[in-house]
Every structure is written in structure tokens, then in C-alpha cells.
Amino acid sequence: MASDLVLRPATRGDAAAIVDLIRGLAVYEREPDAATVTEADILRDGFGERPVFEVAIGEWKGEPVGFALFFPNYSTWQGRPGLYLEDLFVRESHRGLGIGKALLVHLARLAVERGCGRFVWQVLDWNRPAIDFYEALGARHLKEWQTMRVEGEALRRLAGRR
Q1: Quick one: 2-121 is in which CATH superfamily?
Q2: Which residues are catalytic?
């Protein structure tokens, strides 16, 4: 039932739940050891003096079972802000209840309210259920764009630091 679902902005008190949901996402994405985020990281970067991200929490009957972590970006071509969805996750036990769709609709509304020209996210190429879900909602799969990433030691080398 839709009345069992509440979407709300995360608060500092949600830091532990956010970390737990991120770890659940890492397991789902087949990299359980890759999520090294801590509650202190979430508190510092999401709820500190200069927050760099926001989180929408999906609660089912009062229990946090899903989340969307997002932040602003900017389209130089459009000359407008955009909204970038870093992570969307719903616990397996609560999938199929409309929580993921509700979170995406919520973020789309935020993007429109904030004057964004785009709402963008990435999906792993093997995650066919997610790709089908996103396309059914009207998302366009930009297959011609490839993600580039520099991290760890490679990032330090590029920065001229060891």
C-alpha cells in the first residue's frame, strides 16, 4: 500500500541507516568489500558545514528500506543545473512495492522544482532489470558515453603527488 511508504529527506540521525543501505547496494553490485564509507563520512559530507550531497530515504512502515543519494551538477551546453543520482537502492525484501519508482519520481520533481535541465545517473551494464525499469520510466540509455575514472594512486600521480 502506498500509505505504508514515506519519502523524506535524510537527517543526521539517518547516518547509520544510510551506511547500511550503501553496504546493501555494494553487495547487490557484487562488490561487498568496496564500500568503505563510514557514518563519520556521511555526517561530514552530507550534514556538515558545506553538504556535498543529499539523501532521500524511503521508509516502509517506519523502517528505512531504500535511499537515493544525489547532488547537483551542471550542463554547460544547456547552461542549467542538473541533478545527478549517485545511488538508488531498495532492500531486496521490499522490492516490487514501488519504492524505487517513488524515489525516482521524487527526484524528478526536485529536478523540475530546482530548474534542472537534466536528471542523470549510471547503471551497470549487466543490471538488465534496472535498465529495463529505467527505460520503462522514460530514461534514455546513452550507450555512446563511456565513464572515465581516476582514483587512488592513479589520482595522486595525475595530481603530481605520491
Answers
A1: Gcn5-related N-acetyltransferase (GNAT) (3.40.630.30)
A2: 134
